[in-house]
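User: Show me a protein chain along with its predicted structure.
Assistant: Here is one chain, sequence first, then structure tokens.
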Amino acid sequence: MTGISDKRRGRRPALDPAHRRKLAARIAKMVLVDRFEQKEILQQLQNTEPGLGHIDASTISRLYRFALDSGIVRVHIDENAPYKPQRLDTLERELIAAYQLQSAIVADATGHEETLENALADDRLHQALGQLCGEYLDTIVRQNEIVALSSGRAVFYACESLFNKHIFDKRNVRGVKVVSLNGNIAAEVWSMESPDARRAMDADTSAAWLARAFPDAQLIRLSLPVAVKSPEMVNDWLTEGPGRWISPQVWEEKVSQGNPHTIQQTPDDVCVPTMALVGIGGVRPQSGHRFIVGLHEPMLANLHPELQKMIDLIQKYTNGPNRLFSCAVGDLCNRLFVTLDARKHMPAEDLKELEHYVTSINERLLSVTFEQLYMVPKVVVVAGGATKIEAIRSVLEWQQMGWKQPIVHDLCTDKETAVRLLEAKRNSSRRS
């Protein structure tokens, strides 16, 4: 009698129902939890179960669909979860004109003041901005683009949004490189899945998500700490290995050679980014800024005691009902700056002390400088919320900050932030 295996010779072996369900559940977990791509799932299955050597991409897709249809995957719908907001064209045009931007994306997102008191509301605002920014990135990233990222929530959500859009259907843009602009830091926020969980959102993590949105993207992980113990140690970290990707000396050398993006590069050669996606933060004592949240974390130990003294000083001027401004120190790519409002309203002696702390901290950071950002042809900023208005405005008012040229080319923000930025510009024009 001919055996069953003989009858099925030349065909793929059938899976018994119990094994099929277990395999479908495993694939669904790799897709939804581990965020693996199809080729990674195939490799994982073939390495761990030699009997599945016949599995191909179409089988992976069918088993994933089976997991969704059969109830193995259960969907929880949160009606209060963030949604992709509409864009406000009128405000976008006004922002472009007022601050001489190349492009602006303004989300019709509300609840601006809630973000001061409610961490979840603040996080949802960042998710909404990330969704719009991810959609915008999908239209501007080109072949052989070198995309550099800072840490931060809105940057993370933009990268996550673009990845989710292309989980199985990768955007057909080849030769993309993705790299971080600064060392890692415990940039964490409350998870949307559980009120007791937190999600790390440093630059290396965001870069990994963005790289997976493209079919053959090269991911360069810096794997550096956010700061070192002394200014002398910064050069040691940036002279070799992945740290060369954010070395000011290397960037200047590349730029002096001409257009660094048109020169033939070897696979391991460092390049100046063609595009940067960055966030702007406000270092406020009661905020969820990464320097505040991680104040007592080992990653920030190298910044003590100046960091603690800086926070104590700005708390005198940014807390309470009689405060003259709400944000004294902002950050761009984890590099700190004193805001225009602090420069205007703080007494000269305290302002000098604050600038000393900022300089001392910046000298120990493993992050690109503002001067390096001048060299990037396209800098996209995604930032919003009530805690950041003064920091965002300071970066946009680059001439008043004493910078040589504008850093921001494209801005993605929310409705109320855009309105207040425009009001500040009009008030400034009247006074002048």
